[in-house]
Amino acid sequence: MTDSSSTDVRHVIVDTDTGIDDALALLYLLGRDDVEISAITSVYGNTPVEASVTNIARVLQVAGADGILVAKGAAGPMSGEPSIAGHVHGADGLGDLWSDPIAPQNLSPLSSAELIVAMARERPGYYDLLPIGPLTNIGLALQVEPELLTLFRSVVIMGGSGPFPPLGTTLMIDANIQNDAMAAALVIAAPRTRVVMVGVNVTAGVILDEQAVQALYRAGTEWGTFSARILDAYMDFYQFAWGRRVSPAHDGLAAALLVQPEWITRSVDGPVNITSDGFATRAHLVRTDEGLPVGWPTEETPDTVVVLEVNSRAFVADFVRVLSGR
Fold first, then answer.
1. CB atoms < 10 A from the CB of 28, how many?
2. What is the pTM of this model?
3. Cβ atoms within 10 A of the Cβ of 314, count?
4. What is the rounded distance in angstroms from the CA atom of residue 206 to the CA atom of residue 198?
5. Beta strands at 154-158 and 195-198: parallel, antiparallel or unpaired
6. Nearest to 164 by CA among 248, 268, 238
């Protein structure tokens, strides 16, 4: 194991709406020697926030990491009502495979937003922040500490839609931005050290298939079996999108790119704005797919590193290897 005091170790705060892909992302980080998860903050989204906390506890139990600090966060967006993705992740957020709710052993008395602010202020430049759910907790934290994003070594967000797509094509809806546009607008406008946006423009094309599920089952480990069961449940939903049992590795990819930035093979730095066509609310790089300006006035925002292409083969191989728990 890598010495956790080493400068090569990433000390990560994960902000999560703990559905299936979030749980896999957590297990992946917990299985890497070069990562120390310093805290996990919960939020609504894939599941209600209460279930998000339960699911964090279940992942930590599987990983034997019950001592990690956990916080309960926002139950809904800064404005409006939450949209819970029970049809995707199951009513409990993990495919409805368990009937025994459990609680974290190290639950913070602070809310998610309060804990994020406290930890960032205590050790500026030490932690990496990984929001993989709606950005509500981060938006609330920015209202307390407007310089919040400058206090992290880096911020990697699973969210956004990249540049506008080529004519005649559509993008998968990004539930994280859709669920709280107000918080997302605060995040993209905030001063920062480095913010990387891993959007559905790239995550939707990074696919785990039935071979991955079978490899996880064959590992014969608690980690592998847990991962295979919930991934199998995820495919119950996505099979109707593509006519085959596959699923995208949304949050797992964002987690991997935080610790393996060399797997980003193409990106662009530029301003991001929140847009809505009356159906989908998105965080877009305000450029067309050809790199041209969009056709309306835009808001000035600090540059975000927008991921365009990744080494999906290297990621998938490492993801399955780590989740196998060998």
1. 26
2. 0.96
3. 14
4. 12
5. parallel
6. 268
d(CA 2, CA 50): 33
Distance from C-alpha of 197 to C-alpha of 199, rounded to nearest angstrom: 6
Helix (H, G, I), strand (E, B) or coil at 72: strand
- Tell me if 156 sits within 8 A of 258, measured CB to CB: yes
304 phi and psi angles, rounded to 5 deg: -115, 145
* Helix pair angle (20-30, 312-323), 10° resolution: 80
Low-confidence ranges of the chain (pLDDT < 50): 1-6
**What is the residue whose two structure tokens read 């599941």?**
47
Q: Tens digit of pLDDT for each residue in 114-138? A: 999 999 999 999 999 999 999 999 9
* 59-110 confidence digits (pLDDT tens): 999 999 999 999 999 999 999 999 998 898 989 999 999 988 899 999 999 9
Q: Which 8-state DSSP code applies to residue 215?
A: H
Q: Where are the alpha helices (DSSP H) in the chain?
A: 20-30, 49-63, 86-89, 112-122, 136-144, 175-179, 181-189, 200-203, 210-218, 222-242, 250-259, 312-323
Token pair, residue 312, equals 């999906």
Q: What SS3 class is residue 232? A: helix
Question: In whole angstroms, what is the distance from residue 288 CA to residue 165 CA?
Answer: 7
Domain boundaries, the chain: 10-323
- Residues 10-323: name the CATH superfamily: Ribonucleoside hydrolase-like (3.90.245.10)
Residue 272 dihedral angles phi and psi, to the nearest 5°: -115, 140
Smallest Cα–Cα separation from 307: which of 275, 269, 277, 255?
Answer: 269
Q: Give counts: helices (H), strands (E), the chain.
A: 12, 13
